[in-house]
Design a protein that fits this description.
Elements (H helix, E strand, L loop, with lengths): L5 E8 L5 H11 L16 H6 L6 E9 L2 E9 L7 H8 L4 E7 L6 H12 L3 E7 L8 H12 L7 E2 L11 H8 L12 E10 L3 E10 L2 E2 L3 E4 L5 E3 L2 E5 L3 E3 L2 E2 L4 E5 L13 E4 L17 E7 L5 H14 L4 E7 L3 E8 L2 H15 L3 E3 L6 E5 L4 E4 L11 E16 L3 H10 L3 E9 L2 E9 L7 H8 L5 E11 L2 E8 L2 E2 L5 E4 H19 L6 E7 L2 E8 L15 H16 L1 E4 L2 E4 H9 L1
Parallel strand pairs: 1-3, 1-4, 4-5, 5-6
Antiparallel strand pairs: 2-3, 7-8, 7-16, 8-15, 9-14, 10-11, 10-16, 12-13, 12-15, 17-19, 17-20, 18-19, 21-22, 21-23, 23-25, 23-26, 24-25, 27-28, 27-29, 27-30, 30-31, 32-33
Helix pairs in contact: 7-8, 11-13
The protein binds guanosine-5'-diphosphate and magnesium ion (MG).
Length: about 600
């Protein structure tokens, strides 16, 4: 097959605008999957089905006959959420074009902008598609006008479809063939391969997704991974239809999979260039390495589950090399791990997968962002755990990561959104009216302020009608302190956090109060204190009370008495001792969440 008959494209969109549904329809249209099967075929993970989001980009090759010629169209489905934008950009690197999908009832949303710019930066041909035109609220003309205003796309270029009813579906693939250029590679070689993704299959080991930039790749070839110099034998090569289907070879421009006997996805350096042994080539630019932006401790619920947790972590990180994992010990929670994630959603998804796919019961500590501190001698240090933040020592400064945030909202909520962002230490950088009823706002704000209940607040003040997205910003100097919670004078390390000085008293008082309420009475008096850089800013006292579980047992029902005593014993097992105080496990859960 020649390059001219190959097209590599992606579908990019705001979440829920219909990417996965459209991908299903295109797979059906070309006979790759049967009609009426399970929906969102390419969303394979349980968490993806439950949350209705795509986490891992997937690839499918479609064979399509157009004007008497057979084409091989490689469709790469991408996740829409910002935490997974590294998946989007690496998928786009294997494409020459993208379908930019927009819900015709909702119009352009925050992630539509972010994804458009990812594609635009990579010089991809963009095919605009207005989806969900079957909805009564659809306003394709208004949205086409927005596409013109925001992206400079002529309204007549927009295709209209309904991925649900199939309306307009037949216009998509012809537009892909006519508007997206074929891959530009040199068929005469030498072989140059871009590795753009890899995943772990229980039965077949590591499966690498590749684009053949130049030349041909055959089964039996011996290739060199240029980043490490490691050599691999190509044991199997083929295309995703969407199941891996062996073809024995891949030609210039094709996207497909290879199996090399590689043991871990960590050996598959995404963005790497492969070439034949003794035939070196110019290395492809590769991808920016991913950086962890959110850190949290992950601990087993009881110390005895540590080995099970360690095994589950090992299995899960095999398939998600973007999570960093280190051993960590906490005085309060025992042995566990400190993990780095790309963002909060990534962290939640990881936690959920740990529990669902691996049956591990875990407690995750309050997430923290990486802070950069400068010592008085000018040296810098990155702090990934609040309890590493030095106390009683002068610092020249503390810097925190920020984000460049985009909000698209119905205009009537602009006032309350501005208040929310001000409270979150945001600075407005743009205010654009998109259409009479819609406004686009851009802010720079600290990444840490996206934690807590930021998303819930945004949702409740806009009744869920605002969309939000962000990209990494610069480091910004800020007046930050370490906030500790103390029980009878002992610091509970797992509850430490780094906060802005102006908020330390308020947050400290709320933590003390929550602790008092959750702990219930203890056998001895307990002093609960919050300290900002070792200075006490809030205090509560928990009165002593000898807990008598039998007090509620009027009369002498023996079996009931025994049950209560058992229950008390069970409760004791789930306690963590800090200094002289026992803390029930659920107090950690509650405080970490608050
Ligand atoms: P993704 O997040 O972009 O992958 O979106 P999905 O494909 O998961 O679709 C989100 C929701 O929109 C699902 O409930 C779909 O059934 C629905 N949906 C997708 N396309 C259409 C459409 O053309 N019309 C209507 N009415 N609903 C659609
Ligand atoms: Mg999807």
């Amino acid at each position: 097959r020649r390059c001219e008959q190959v097209r590599n494209f992606s579908i990019i969109a705001h979440v829920d605008h219909g990417k996965s549904t459209l991908a299903d329809r295109l797979l059906e249209l070309t006979g790759a999957i049967k009609k009426g099967g399970k929906e969102q075929y390419l969303d394979k993970l349980q968490v993806e089905r439950e949350r209705g989001i795509t986490v891992k980009a997937q690839t499918a090759s479609l064979v399509y006959r157009y004007k008497g010629t057979e084409y091989l169209l490689n469709l790469i489905d991408t996740p829409g959420h910002v935490d997974f934008s590294y998946e989007v950009s690496r998928s786009l690197a294997a494409c020459q074009g993208a379908l930019l999908l927009v819900d015709a009832a909702q119009g352009i949303q925050a992630q539509t902008l972010a994804n458009f710019y990812l594609a635009f930066d990579q010089d991809l041909a963009i095919v605009p598609v207005l989806n969900k035109v079957d909805l009564p609220a659809a306003e394709p003309e208004t949205v086409a006008e927005q596409m013109h205003q925001v992206f400079d796309i002529p309204p007549e270029e927009c295709l209209l479809t309904s991925a649900k009813t199939g309306l307009g579906l037949e216009s998509i693939l012809p537009a892909v063939i006519e508007r997206i250029p074929p891959p530009p590679g040199n068929t005469a070689g030498p072989l140059r391969v871009l590795l753009f993704d890899a995943f772990h299959d229980e039965y077949r080991g590591v499966i690498c997704l590749v684009e053949i930039i130049d030349g041909h790749l055959r089964k039996g070839d011996r290739v060199v991974a240029s980043s490490t110099g490691d050599t691999y034998d190509i044991l199997e090569v083929g295309i995703m239809t969407p199941e891996p289907t062996s073809t024995g070879r891949l030609c210039t421009g094709q996207v497909g999979y290879v199996i090399t006997g590689m043991k871990s996805t960590r050996s598959a350096r995404v963005g790497d260039t492969w070439h034949l042994l003794k035939q070196p080539v110019e290395i492809l630019p590769g991808f920016k390495p991913t950086k962890s932006m959110v850190f949290a401790g992950v601990f087993p619920i009881t110390g005895a589950d540590f080995d099970a947790l360690a095994a589950a972590m090992e299995r899960l990180t095999l398939n998600d090399a973007s999570v960093t994992v280190r051993r960590e010990n906490s005085a309060a929670l025992g042995a566990g791990f400190r993990c780095g994630f790309l963002g909060l959603l990534h962290m939640e998804v990881f936690h959920q997968r740990l529990e669902q796919e691996h049956g591990a019961n875990v407690i995750t500590t309050t997430p923290t962002v990486p802070y950069s501190i400068e010592h008085t001698d000018g040296s810098r240090e990155e702090i990934q755990n609040p309890s590493q933040f030095p106390l009683g020592k002068k610092l020249s400064g503390v810097w925190e990561p920020t984000v460049a945030a985009t909000v698209v909202t119905p205009s009537e909520h602009v006032g309350s959104i501005m208040e929310l962002f001000q409270d979150r230490r945001g600075e407005m950088t743009e205010h654009t009216v998109l259409s009479p009823a819609r406004t686009l706002l851009r802010y720079v704000l600290p990444l840490a302020e996206l934690g807590g209940n930021f998303y819930d607040s945004l949702k409740s003040i806009t009744s869920g009608y605002a969309s939000f997205d962000y990209e990494e910003g610069e480091l910004r100097k800020a007046d930050l302190v370490r906030l500790d919670l103390l029980l009878n004078g002992e610091v509970v390390d797992a509850l430490a956090r780094i906060v802005h000085r102006d908020k330390a008293q308020r947050i400290g008082a709320a933590m003390c109060e929550a602790m008092k309420e959750k702990m219930g009475r203890q056998q001895f008096e307990v002093i609960i204190q919050a300290a900002a850089n070792s200075k006490i800013v809030a205090r509560e006292t928990l009165k002593a009370f000898r807990k008598n579980v039998l007090a509620k047992c009027y009369g002498g029902d023996v079996s009931r008495k025994r049950k209560l005593l058992e229950k008390q014993k069970e409760g004791k097992k789930r306690m963590r001792r800090v200094g002289s105080v026992d803390i029930p496990q659920d107090v950690f859960h509650a405080l970490i969440k608050s």
